[in-house]
Amino acid sequence: MSVPSEVTERIETERAILKTILYSDLFDYPLTTDEVAHYLMEVESSADAVRSTLAAPVLLDGQIAQKDGYVMAWGRESLVELRLDRSRSSEDLWRRARRFGHILSCMPFVRMVGVTGALAMNNSPVGDDVDVFIVTAPGRVWLARAAVTLIVYGGRLFGSTLCPNYFISENALMLESRTIYVAHEFVQMVPIYGVAIHARMRAANQWIDAMMPNARRPYRSEPEHHPALIGRSFKKLTEWLLSGRLGDFIEEWEMRRKLQKFLPRLSRCGGSAVMDRDHVKGHFNDHAARLVDLYQERLEEFPLAGLTGEASRSTHN
């Protein structure tokens, strides 16, 4: 006996909701219904459809909980207070991130700055770093990184920690790793400078649509930072001075110097660091791989989330 299409659709929507909640649970982060809809995994569905499903769950009954407008895994209701606490500490960190954004937008060869990590989700504890993803002009990844590093040191003097953990050039907008971790990190990124570059990067990574089809635009938006007159003048002058052979020499020298320093760590197994002419990704400890493994374990704890669409249909025939 065939299963009506509306039943199949309901099964797939509930399964996608559970998978979305379980991934967020890895970060101790309950979601609003709108966030569930935006970050919904593998299934394209409207926010209204997600709301109606959550209002009257069937297969999700006993697997998820809802409290004060938030949705979380069953037994994790205490995360609501944690999210509220981290939201408050994130607001203070966002003020620092905006100041960093203004400064970074003035740095030579910086073309895009995006806030990533916990702060992008308003999930930063007190004392957390401001994680940023930076896109640079072609052929100037290492020179731009050196300039940004000066801002990092300056921030530390005032008790603010900027963590620019990923640089790529405009020649490398396609992300090299295609995992749910990378997809989620990208879609939750909040561009604060270079919004047009961010849009180009999203278009270059259409593989994300299969994992998170509703997240075609950032969920959170911030006013784009543009350098003031003095900042524009500084950026224009330094780029003019460093656009020719002098810049080429410094870029090559800085790349060779840093690669020599990082080579022992790059040769070790287990990390996801990438360092070449278009990438500076210093992830020597593969946190992403561990999270993906933890996510798979979490899915196995909740059978509905682990079912394929075909398995779901056969289970309910």
Notes on the structure:
With 317 residues, the chain is an alpha+beta fold. It folds into 2 domains: 5-77 and 291-315, Arc Repressor Mutant, subunit A; 92-240, Beta Polymerase, domain 2 (2-Layer Sandwich). The protein contains 14 helices and 9 strands. The protein has helices spanning 5-25, 33-38, 47-55, 79-104, 117-120, 141-157, 180-188, 195-204, 208-211, 229-241, 245-266, 287-301, 303-306, 309-315, and strands at residues 31-32, 64-67, 70-73, 110-115, 130-136, 162-169, 190-193, 274-275, 279-281. The strands form 2 sheets. The protein has a 6-stranded mixed beta sheet with strand order 7-4-5-6-9-8. Strands 1-3-2 form a 3-stranded antiparallel beta sheet. Helix 6 (141-157) packs across helix 11. The chain is elongated, with a radius of gyration of 22 Å. It starts with a helix and ends with a helix.
